[in-house]
Amino acid sequence: MMKRFAFHLASLLALAGCATSEKEVPVEVRIANATPAVHVTARGETTPVGTPNADAADDPAIWRNAANPAASLIVGTDKKAGLYVYGLDGKTRDFLDAGRVNNVDLRDGVAISGHNGILVVASDRNDVANAKLALFRLDPGTAKISALGKVDAGKGEAYGICMYRAAEATYAFIVLKDGTVHQVALDVSGAAPTGKIVRTMKLGTQSEGCAVDDRTGILYVAEEDVGLWRFDARATGSTIATKIAAADGKNLVMDAEGVAIAPIGETDGYVLVSSQGDNAYVAYRLSDDSYVGRFRVVDGKIGGSEETDGIELVLGDFGPAYPGGLFIAQDGHNATAAQNFKLAAWDDIVKALGLPQ
Fold first, then answer.
1. Residue 299 is part of a domain; what is its CATH number?
2. pLDDT tens digit string along 112-138?
3. Number of domains in the chain
4. How far apart are CA 213 and CA 311, in angstroms?
5. What is this structure's pTM?
6. Diameter of the chain by CA atoms?
């Protein structure tokens, strides 16, 4: 058996040498060439999205109910159809037909029409020539999501989205397909939402995943075939990017996709990025951008996750199954069903990577 596997792998490696790009290299070879990754298993999963036989599920966001962690909610996109709301049991609590919404993020405690609430923002690509932000309110009591309206976000195809709560405003960063990043100041205090592009940044090629550390005002963006970058998220800050990690086929394998943050203490923690090319996730230390480790969500009682687009991570108590935090990954190959999202415990990831607890 081992001899046959070695011969098969050698054949694949030979094939890889003839490939014109890393994306054409068979996934088995990409995994073999990459830095080894530890394994964790999912503790839960959502029901599949409604669009079958398609690349449809894309990006999750998490709302943690501090008063009742078991009542926390997950918002996930079906980029062909709209937004889902799930409970921690993975069951669908609501669906809103919002069309082609790609990535999603949320912030709690935002003044929406005079009342603090949960603001959900999605990148709207119903018009591929004109990017928009689609804004929603999430009701934590009913788990229902309702549309507030749309805000113009520049010319080009909307891809990634992430939010930033600063002292002066709530912002959304929209990442366009060509690597342009607009920072949009949002105002949802009135009857209809408004927004203004206050700053623009640029990466060289197709980009999507992003996340902002509200504590430090740092924006992290994944340029799919190049690597992971950080920007100053402050509206008055520099627009020059600093590369954290290259998509070198070792620690990070193109496509670099979803991005999430594990904030620890006042300024430390980890930034995680989906190493889509070899079905893995990579952690880098926030304090110095250093490489920390890699992990995969593999088959257990629940299936693993492969070819992950969006990821999200929120630390804190989510009940007995996720006491230290909840990590969610889009699953690009959900057996014979439509795509869905896999739920893993942050405690399991910490233990597998040997991180300090």
1. 2.120.10.30
2. 998 999 999 999 999 999 999 999 999
3. 1
4. 15
5. 0.93
6. 68
